[in-house]
Amino acid sequence: MSADALFQTFARAGLAFERGEGVWLYTAEGDAYLDMMGGVAVNALGHAHPALTEALSAQAHKLWHVSNVFRIPEQEALAEKLAGLTFADRVFFCNSGAEAMECAIKTARRWHFVNGRPERTRIITFEGAFHGRTLATLAAGGQQKYLEGFGEKAPGFDQVPFGDHEAVRAAIGPETAAILVEPIQGEGGVRPVPVQCLKGLRELCDEHGLLLIFDEVQTGVGRTGKFFAHEWSGVTPDIMGVAKGIGGGFPLGACLATEDAAKGMTPGSHGSTFGGNLLAMAVASKVVDIVADPAFLEAVRGRGLKLKQKLAALVDTYPTVFAGVRGEGLLVGLKCVVPSADVAAAFRAQKLLCVGAGDNVVRFLPALTVSDAEIDEAVARAEKAAVELSRVGEKGAAA
Ligand SMILES: *Cc1c(COP(=O)(O)O)cnc(C)c1O
Questions:
Q1: pTM value?
Q2: Tens digit of pLDDT for each residue in 113-139?
Q3: C-beta neighbour count of 53 within 10 angstroms
Q4: Which residues form a coiled coil (predicted)?
Q5: Which residues lie with the beta carbon below 6 Å from any ligand 1 atom?
Q6: H or E stretch including 376?
Q7: Cα torsion angle, 340, 344, 350, 354, sign
Q8: Domain 19-48+294-398 sits in which CATH superfamily?
Q9: Domain boundaries, given as residue ranges, for the chain
């Protein structure tokens, strides 16, 4: 078997897995890998969580898909659940993070449209952001390497430097509709937006009649030890995109909004064939029940703290390999001195799976259920890799 029949869009590691359990992945040969990347923040409850496999198979025997032409009580129930747990009053279900952000962008523009300000279409975003791979979300992310060769960049996005409040203020004009930000940049290298900045963005939006959009596709659903990362700041958005962890591995995205912010999204204004599919609803409903439990979130904060502390000790011991640790809860970035791709590969050689990010960072995004012993094991494996990497560094210095 080879990957020749696939689009060659991914630089894949030469590894494949047959089954998983919790934070463990097994190859067909039976090799066990410690999965500290959780499908890039998707497998919120680990692999093959019994409550999720049960919810999925029970639903699979009843009904998979009906059209959004009909009422779907399971959608209504999950939307009510999410509204009850967040700032939001309304939810649109889709299938991915990029689609959730597309809906967020459309919702913001449409709000101004129905308010008699159709010229307000522009959205302010930040350097280093990642909002997805559709043409609009690529333009929102503004990363040249992803835009190249795909034609004219979708109009309507103004990008400012990360954390530059004055640049945001200066970018606001008569056509500005919204400000879009990840509370912690994930792909950008686990870069948290300081609480003061989020507060400042909220104030700017209120002052200028703009909508505040949070992209919590990566940071949401318990990842940072709060149900949503913005809860750390006390700042609430008007619109928010969610995906990744909410389906626990089943594809699902959602756009959440206040009743006011969603008021332009009238019948016929938006849609999705698969969005809110019954299988997705069954799994996500279970994920939300488990993750939103305050005791569960407290445990995530404890595990995150432990992981960060242990990694910080590793940074102290191997300063030629690692430069620092950052992030919140179980969204942890290990800033590297040596190329992060080399670190991820050295980890893989120790059967430890992590994933790279921008700014020369390697991310730890394990299942939120990871145990203390598994964290110890992960850091022990990371240390073995660090020993190897620092030896290579010494040889390089001697040569
Ligand atoms: C992953 C991600 C997306 C895109 O999600 P897809 O499901 O790949 O479309 C958007 N925003 C953020 C912050 C992400 O981490």
A1: 0.97
A2: 999 999 999 999 999 999 999 999 999
A3: 13
A4: none
A5: 96-98, 101, 130-132, 182, 186-187, 215, 217-218, 243-244
A6: helix 372-398
A7: positive
A8: Aspartate Aminotransferase, domain 1 (3.90.1150.10)
A9: 19-48+294-398, 50-291
